[in-house]
């Protein structure tokens, strides 16, 4: 009886661990995607403002 309970607990812990790892990976990926998007948007804004500045002159 004790062995069955321990085995079940181990399985649950492994399962939860996998879920946590998957969620963490998804969050990290989303963060990196946002970071790249923000960087690209920043570059685009700089480019647009620079071209606007050139047009104003």
Automatic annotation (TrEMBL):
The chain crosses the membrane at residues 12-32, 38-55. Keywords: Membrane, Transmembrane, Transmembrane helix. This is NADH dehydrogenase subunit 4L. It comes from Vermiconidia calcicola. It comes from the Eukaryota.
């Amino acid at each position: 009886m004790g062995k069955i309970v321990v085995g079940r607990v181990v399985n649950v812990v492994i399962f939860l661990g996998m879920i946590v790892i998957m969620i963490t990976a998804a969050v990290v990926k989303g963060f990196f995607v946002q970071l790249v998007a923000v960087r690209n948007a920043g570059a685009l804004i700089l480019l647009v403002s620079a071209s606007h500045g050139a047009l104003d002159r």
